[in-house]
Design goal:
The chain is of the alpha+beta class and 135 residues long. It has a domain of 45 residues. The chain is built from 5 helices and 3 strands.
């Protein structure tokens, strides 16, 4: 068992050494980019022409906008609240659009019990319901 462990360790070390070496055809450069390359990259950036004072002013303006956005978000929180529709309303809508109802069926809605007489209206989709008197 000790021989297997040693063999496995030798394989791991060999693989690590092999992977660290450049493979044939790889052009790997460990030198940092030349100063001219960095300067030319900066010269093309519009932010490189901004003075330190302008940069600080931009940062301060951005911070003020972020603070104002946070305040607006907190002030408008009550307007963002979502109140789900009550289950009674959902059930009533479902009953009124149920196409399996037959004349004489009794349905329960959020307004009470109703007797279904049939469909009416120009489209034939409006439920004709008559309220049942309470007992």
């Amino acid at each position: 068992m000790r021989i297997d462990f040693v063999a496995a360790m030798v394989m791991v070390v060999a693989l690590q050494l092999w992977s660290e070496q450049g493979h044939a055809g790889d052009d790997v450069s460990t030198e940092p980019p030349a100063a001219e390359d960095q300067a030319s990259d900066l010269a093309h950036s519009p932010d490189s022409l901004v003075s330190r004072e302008d940069w600080k002013r931009r940062i301060d303006d951005a911070r003020k906008r972020a603070v104002q956005a946070r305040r607006d978000w907190q002030l408008n929180a009550p307007l963002r609240t979502f109140e789900p529709e009550p289950p009674e309303k959902i059930a009533t809508r479902r009953v009124l659009s149920d196409d399996t109802l037959q004349p004489g069926d009794i349905v329960s809605t959020d307004k009470g019990l109703f007797l279904f007489r049939g469909r009416s209206g120009a489209d034939g989709q409006t439920a004709d319901l008559v309220p049942l008197p309470p007992r």
